[in-house]
Amino acid sequence: MKKFGKIICVTVLALALGLTGCGNKDDDKETTTVAAEKTEAKTEKKTEEKTEEKKEEKSEEKTEEKSEEKTEEKKEEKSEEKSEEKSEEKTEEKKETEAESTSEAASEEVSNEATIYVGKDGSFTEIKAEISKDMSVEDQAAAIIIEIGYAVGYQIGTLDISNGKGGFSIDFSSDSAPFDIENTYKGNGAEVYPVSGGQEEVAKVVFDSIKESLQKYFGGGDVYFSLNGGDITIGSITISAVEPY
């Protein structure tokens, strides 16, 4: 009986131990499975996090690229605006230059216009004439005297015109007006400033008109008259060749 009892105890113990061993193995398997699942979950989470990080990085890169593109576009726009502004400025400068050139050309054309004064004793009629500034001062003075002759209807001839003594010296020819008014009349009765009097009247108009026109045209200065280099005497009119008229 004692042996049998021992055998039973050993058997029960063995069974107990066997059951215990089996229980531990299942627990280990479950523990291992859970750990593996956790590891996979962590791995998946990390993968997702990395994927998200990569997406964020790509998004940031795209944002930076867009920002750079916009910056470049702005630079290009500013460059184009500056180019347009420069082009407009150049266009304006060209217009101003052309306007100045046109103005200068017009000024040059207008500068050939002159006003002669025909009359006597401070009462004069203004007459427009063309006097070229390209000529010498003496030739311009001669042209003014010729224009006065056209206005009164007489041919006025000069031997010499000089610019000195602080003004002009006009030396007349004896075969021209106002010294020979019969043979030097070239008018037809429709003169701009007809002279109705005799030789003294013609002389007064010629001398006064020449003096007034030269002084106004050249901006002042004295005027001297002479006949063949000497003094002038016409009726009651006496003019010294060395004294300003």
Structural account:
- This protein is α+β, with helices and mostly antiparallel strands.
- The protein has 3 helices and 7 strands.
- The protein has helices at residues 2-111, 137-152, 199-218; strands at 113-120, 123-130, 158-164, 167-172, 222-227, 232-234, 237-239.
- A 3-stranded mixed beta sheet has the order 3-4-5, covered by helices on one side. A two-stranded antiparallel ribbon has the order 1-2. A two-stranded antiparallel sheet has the order 6-7.
- A hairpin with a 2-residue loop joins strand 6 and strand 7.
- Helix 2 (137-152) runs antiparallel to helix 3.
- The longest helix is centred in the N-terminal third of the chain and has 110 residues, at 2-111.
- The termini are far apart.
Write the layout of secondary structure elements.
Elements: H1 2-111, E1 113-120, E2 123-130, H2 137-152, E3 158-164, E4 167-172, H3 199-218, E5 222-227, E6 232-234, E7 237-239
Structural key phrases:
single chain; 245 residues; alpha+beta; three-stranded mixed sheet; two-stranded antiparallel sheet; 3 helices; 7 strands; disordered N terminus
